[in-house]
Amino acid sequence: MDSTDDILGELPLPPYVTAEDVTFAVKAVTVHAAEQWPDGQRCRNDRAPHPCRLHRWGRRVLTCRGLSEREIEALVPEQTARQP
Question: Which of 9, 12, 48, 61 is the most buried (most CB within 10 A)?
Answer without folding.
Answer: 61
